[in-house]
Amino acid sequence: MVLEVIVDISTAEIDRPFDYEGEDVPLGSRVAVSFAGRNAVGFVIGKKLSSDFPELKRAKYLDTPISEEQLALMNAMREKYNLRHIDVLRLFVPSKLREERDPEYKRIFLTAAEVENAEETLKRAPRQREALEYLLKSGGEYLSALSERFGAGAVNGLREKGLVSESSVHESKVPLSELSGRKKQVALTEDQQEAVRRITSEKGVFLLHGVTGSGKTEVYMSVIERMLERGKTAIMLVPEIALTPQILGIFRARFGDLVALMHSGLNAGERYDEWKRLKDGEARIAVGPRSAVFAPLSDIGVIIIDEEHDSSYVSESNPRYDTKEVAKLRAAACGAALVLGSATPAMESYLNATEGKYHLISLKKRIAAYPLPEMEIVDMVTEFRYGNRSLFSAALRDGIGAALSRKEQVILFLNRRGFASFVMCKACGWVAKCEDCDVSLTYHKGENVLKCHCCGKRYHALSKCPMCGSTEIKQGKTGTEKVEEELKALFPDVRVLRMDNDTTSRKDSYFRILNDFSSGGADVLVGTQMIAKGHDFPNVTLVGILEADSALYFSDYRSSERTFQLITQVAGRAGRADKKGRVILQTYSPRHYVFRFGRTYDYEGFWRKEINTRMVTKFPPFTKVVRVLVAAEEEQAAVDCTRSIYRAMLEAERRTEKFVYLGAARSPVTRMHGLTRYQVLMRLTPELYEKLIPEIYRLTAEYKPKKGSCFAETDPQSLI
Ligand code: ADP
Ligand code: ZN
Ligand code: ZN
Fold first, then answer.
1. How many Å lie between the centroid of ligand 2 and the Cα of residue 472?
2. How far is the CA of 471 from the centre of ligand 2 (A)?
3. Of these four, 180, 343, 439, 589, which has the most CB atoms within 10 Å of its CB?
């Protein structure tokens, strides 16, 4: 049998299958092959009886990690998003399966053996002794983890001396097992029951619209329970790593070991273990951010996307895809229900619901007796006029003081982007910029460095202007740092936790900060977008939103929508328990309709106004925005490519119909990662989009600069 194999070699420029001789194995199988003189792993995506090549090398069968259903999904994604085989394949298999070794080889479990005088033997080997002591204390550890900790030399020493016992039991450890929430069985309200009934009996896509605390999560869990009773499995998607712990705890309490966690914060071994438990049917519910949509489950009964409007569901780097669309494809292929849940659905989702393409289910009331927190809008222009130059309005300052004296907690939210500060010379006006990107650097006081928020490059903090030598340099602070500082000046004893990109660079730091805060380790949590998500802090009674309009004046057609989503979400953090919550929103444009509707949590009102604007101005969901981004080492190469594609699009326009918009220009960020960037921007009716997108994909491949890249994105999340 001739197998068509995609070889997993990262440097391979060629995106096509290679023929190998092998047994008749199922499609989606993993094989060991030799490629360009190297051993590699490959995936069988096709089979045939003969090949055009006379002499074929042999492929050795390893296992079958990808099901036919997944393979079909993979192909659909490839076509829809113009992706390479290998990039999509990698979404479906844990990294351990991309090594040729047996993924379980490292899973040797070591315990301290019962040997007399072990201490004596190890007098001259302190590392080995430490490792042994660790084994005694912990009751055992995996070989790989122990070697990582104490070095392979020390561990092998112990093994040679017979001081450890080895077992190959592959007992997978459940990641974050310390996280299990309280089990709480509730009797569903009538609205919830009706929601569960519809989702489990009708077909298609369901939009579950309900404010925070309206009981959506309980609906999800009941739906999943029904599906499990029918012998089916479920996928539960949540926006971000920071949100996963809480929902994971709730799910574990309800479903125990049937839950598997899939996310990138796990190490490769843990990821493999969880993947395997799903694959083997030991676990039947996959929980995680967007990559969990690729979970190796069969008989999927339901896919749930919580906070469906969240932008993290769109992958913005290769492979680019929209999780919602992928989930739609997968659910349809499996005959599974797809549930999109949100308090502030995406414009398009709600439009689909009103047009009958989705089933709309609304949970109108909050479960508990307590209402949504009251929102006060503070006009910062007036504050300024009365001489208040601080970040805090009088109302917010008083509110914080009152909450603190009642021993209650406060959340202060600010929009990261609106606050990024730059470093400028006061004498000559020079601004510090990244060498590789055309963006100004941000000063980080904690580490005393300048950082590029675009590529992450770090620079020494400056004491002198490199242009004029002046020492009058304004080292701005990041927004969260500034807030913390002012807060401490106002309330000297206040205990503050900060959550932003700086404080959460470590894998477990989200988790630590949130835990700390919820157990009362601080009075105030200051943070960016990250804290807007679904955390539940019963003792928080005040939420302050600083500079609520900073996202509003971005030149992006979604800025009102995003602002509305953000304020609704952040406001939902206050008053989750028996204490009454309060939200103070500071803005320079208090009469903007976002705040008018936001103040009363009037999603429908906001949606009607906004959708009308989109229709009149011909923006999504009534059109598709396509951006072809060209990046090249040499400016001329970028220009040539951009021009060729632009001309081809002009030609397409003549052939078909006038585009809503067509333009080509430098990108707003003209350089990034050392490449010069140009773009062709288009807005097309959905019908024309379907017709032209294959051609656009073809053009990007045809004109791609030799040293650089060129790709097309649909409705990109950011246009920089
Ligand atoms: P959402 O996901 O919409 O924010 P949740 O499902 O988390 O809402 O519910 C909010 C709170 O109300 C949770 O503490 C949950 O346990 C509780 N709750 C939900 N449904 C019920 C119910 N039918 N009876 C009692 N409490 C409920
Ligand atoms: Zn200067
Ligand atoms: Zn940079």
1. 8
2. 8
3. 343
